[in-house]
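Appendix B: complex inputs.
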Amino acid sequence: MMKYSRYQAEIKVLEEKLPSNIYRFMDMNTAKPYLVMAARTNRGNIYTLKIELDVFPDNIPKVFVTKMLYDCNLNPLDTPSSSMHTLNSENGCTQICHYGTSSWTNRVSLYKVYIKCRLWLEMYEAHLSTGAPIGYYLKHQS
Amino acid sequence: MIVYLSQEELDAFASGEAESQCGYAYEWEGEDVVHLHTQPLAHAFGRVSKCFFSKAAPIVSFLNDVLWCVFVGGDGPQVFVKTDNELQRVDSQMIPSKENLYSRSKGILEVGILEKKHVAVIGLGSFGSQIAIELAKAGVGEFSLVDFDRVELHNLARHTCFIKDLGRLKTDAIEESILGKNPYTKIHKYPLDISKNNQRLEEIVCCADLVICATDNNPSRFALSQALVDFQKVGIFGRAFTRAEGGDVFIYHPGQACYSCLVGNIGVVHEEITDEVSARQTGIIPAYVSAQDADAMVQVGLSADIEPICNMMIKLALVELSRGEASGISCLEDELVYNYYLWANRRERKFSNWHILPGAGPMPTIMRWYGANISRRDDCAVCSKDEILLDTGDEFEELLQSF
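Resulting structure:
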């Protein structure tokens, strides 16, 4: 469970970096807190990200796009994939592999997680245009 | 025939009101060794039969199905064994009482001090199991044992547990090992994952005089580091690098650098992966890695390679538990003054450019401890008294703008 001082520090970073109407912390006093964030890609498409906070910041938070995404061949991105940087989907939502455990530290901010997922979305849209896997554009998340 | 009696149990029986009592004989069959107890053992061994304890002289007719009889009279206990319906006197030896069990350590360790100490051991793998048992042997009086895992086949090569322990919770198996060495130890067992039970972790840390962190992943260490800082407790962290080519030990003292400061200063190191299942659970092996590739990632070092690291953790623990008290181990307070210790077993990977042992002189070599003081980070996310400075990933922000 995130401590209050850490929660305040995260809010401060988000307030500095993003408009306040694109993120909202939810269920913070429960065992399953999460953060919902809107992400607009450079092509103008809008996605909603759900960042689960139950193990954050000691461990990597799970990040889901709040719908199932499909690759350029219309296959759902619902399984662990090295080339597409995805993990098992849950509740019909694609899960982004955004960080490697070996490089995770508890100093990583939610904003950094958000930015890395924004990058993944850019790569995903590039994949839809060219057919090249996300791994082609993106090194393994570190 | 070698017969052992428990001094503590006999004293309790002699001072009690009962004139007689039925107890238990545990015999190592074929070895002519028997242990006689007034109370049943939690983990019985050998062939079990009845033993009659009496304050009056033993009477043969009472002993229908009883093989052993202990007469507790004025001149010490007398042990009899029934052979051909007759009682034959046999010599006996004593399992010492609490205050004398580890009297051989006196002068080096102050057993009376350690007996009052409470150590929490988080993680009961090849590190934690050995450390817990060694501290029990030294006379530590109370333990909190934390591990959600069970003893599995791949554990056995380096673990203190035996084949007979396969499938048991590690907390139960290590409890038995500790009580086997020091039956007077008080043990609290917590078969749970501390990464998912912050509140319980805080309760465990709060009650302990010293915390041994012997888990195999950073998320649990970060959680523990936070609890140590919050409750101002001393904690000792130890780990092995890939294939146990080396390892390090870090000790946290309240007010000084914490484990997160260590990670901030030296970065994340490549650690030994000993178990595919737990490595997958913690994400060390990502979900998309195939079973074949994962198998190649599991590279376990030798038991002999982790022994020096365990040994250093034990020594540091004993120094901390005895700190400020006059004992034979006090001199180590002047030696073990660092908060970080590095050990190399082999000249591989990060140690490949170290010097060969013969003729190395002052240059770094394997099989030698190196100490350093890790300084506290002002921007530490756990222990900083100032504003927390988070990693905001500016480099990725720049990358994003390039699209």
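The domain at 106-372 of chain B is CATH 3.40.50.720 (Rossmann fold).
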